[in-house]
Specification:
By secondary structure, the protein is of the alpha/beta class. It has a single domain, classed as Isochorismatase-like (Rossmann fold). 39% of the residues lie in helices and 18% in strands. The protein contains 8 helices and 6 strands, in the order βαααβαβαβαβαβα. Strands 3-2-1-4-5-6 form a 6-stranded parallel beta sheet, with helices on both faces. Helix 7 links the parallel strand 5 and strand 6. Helix 3 packs parallel to helix 8. The protein is globular.
């Protein structure tokens, strides 16, 4: 896909790529998400686009789901997905499970936001940061495709951002869940691309600069 990306007006979002969610030893291993991450080689691919984004001067923002001990952020009426996090004792602030894997660990210049829901915009100041930096293009990566990626794409498009979902840098609990979101839902809220579309944009610009 031919596309033009202005790095200064764009952001790469790394959504919920945390040990408990993407590692086979994590507390969400039962969900199938880590198996899909391994099978699809997600962490290596995310690492590729993060590296390119940094070199191009694009802001990289990690949005991590994390809770305090006792989960005071969650009520008894919390919807089942988050209730499952509490039941599993997962993604506790400061724990290994809440951290990003070493291969995609945030570096100086990246931003890390903590959220408590399925959207990167919910109860965070993500929108404030993006508007302050004159950013209007959002490139989404992460797990799960049909939860945090979907919710962020929907909310972001409603706020007026141009949404790009990097398909092969996302995965879900099953291949079927991922494919349904990619083929049937997300094209209604933005543009689905491959990581090569993202990377080649900057390599092409470098060759001709």
């Amino acid at each position: 896909m031919r596309m033009s990306i202005n790095a200064k007006n764009s952001v790469l979002l790394v959504l919920h790529c945390q040990n408990d969610i993407v590692d086979l030893s994590g507390k969400f291993a039962y969900s199938g998400a880590p198996s899909q991450v391994v099978e699809r080689g997600i962490l290596g691919k995310v690492s590729d686009v993060v590296s390119i984004a940094r070199k191009a001067g694009m802001l990289v923002i990690y949005v991590n789901n994390a809770f305090r001990p006792g989960y005071p952020e969650l009520s008894k009426r919390t919807f089942p997905l988050l209730a499952g996090a509490r039941k599993a004792g997962s993604v506790l602030l400061g724990s290994w499970g809440a951290a990003n894997p070493q291969v995609i660990k945030p570096k100086d210049g990246d931003l890390v936001l903590i959220n408590y829901n399925s959207s990167a915009f919910s109860y965070t100041n993500l929108d404030q940061i993006l508007r302050a930096q004159n950013i209007n293009q959002l490139f989404l990566t992460g797990v799960a495709t049909n939860f945090v990626v979907d919710s962020t794409a929907r909310y972001g498009s409603e706020l007026g951002y141009d949404i790009f979902v990097v398909e092969d840098c996302c995965s879900s609990f099953t291949e079927e869940m991922h494919n349904f979101a990619i083929n049937q839902i997300l094209p209604h809220f933005g543009t689905v691309i491959k990581r090569t579309d993202f990377i080649n944009n900057f390599l092409s610009n470098t060759k001709h600069s």
